[in-house]
Design goal:
- The protein has about 350 residues and is of the alpha/beta class.
- It has seven helices and 18 strands.
- Strands 1, 2, 3, 4, 5, 16, 17 and 18 form an eight-stranded mixed sheet that branches.
- The chain starts with a strand and ends in a 5-residue tail after the last helix.
Amino acid sequence: MNDVREVEVVVVGAGQAGLSSAYHLRRTGFEPDRDFVVLDHSPAPGGAWQFRWPSLTYGKVHGMHALPGMELTDADPTRPSSEVIGAYFDRYERTFDLRVRRPVDVRAVREGPGGRLLVETSHGIWATRALINATGTWDRPFWPRYPGQETFRGRQLHTAQYPGPETFAGLRAVVVGGGASGTQHLLEIAPYAAATTWVTRRPPVWREQPFDENAGREAVALVEERVRQGLPPRSVVSVTGLPLNDAIRRGLEDGVLDRLPMFDRIEPEGVVWDDGRRVAADVILWATGFRPVIEHLAPLRLREPGGGIRVEGTRAVADPRIHLVGYGPSASTIGANRAGRAAVRDIRRLLAEEPAAA
């Protein structure tokens, strides 16, 4: 333990959830570097937003909720969201003196001596009494597997690698996925591509009624029930449906959002259904979502037989020292804010009950 630095709390990740948690730690008397540390593997402030494609301007962002204690005002809606939110997060970190350490890769979290957790990183080891995991999902894109996928002669890429619509100029594009990213990609690509085809596993559900506070609570409750049972979390949009806005209506009217059921296999020149239908393709864009980044927690054996981590509020049921913020029901900007506050409240209670070992 000679080279191990001790703190009360380690926060892993400096996106919305991590910064919210750090803010509430600071606000309740914890000092950065002395009592807590924030570790972020990204090269700059901005969380996953810094990796978004340039055509996703701030005006196209849905539901970006301000971090606690500082509003995001006078943002230019025509600027890339990566720039707007990156600058906002940078200002936030400096205003509240959160002293985020980056780039730091967290490789594993293990049981340590004296009831502490050992957080092994690319920049040394921290021993902590509690850990807030705020790693999000961006670094774990989900790639489905289909027969013949490796034979495709065109290009395959995921939303995480989406470069913007100009790259698809003159190409025949197949877009896979029924979420918000899939529809956004299609609407952007269509004016450039030679042809677009949209395929999803399930028919899209369009939501015409306003998404008010009650609807939001109902959606979060459905996602929360899954993580309470130890099942992998589903996205909130999977239970809310997709908003039927003006852009979507135009896409439906002009045929861009004509959806086909999922193909059965991939061939060198395109995709094929068992009924004999074929679509030629130069590129397949997998807008198939992401999975939680929690592999570094594997040594603690938190996963349930259902594949997820069982969570009550933000606390891992199997280990009350671990809080998952931005996981499952709190995987939204407003949910991350609330979860950060709740996690800090629980951690303060835990640390008061269990004095540090000598």
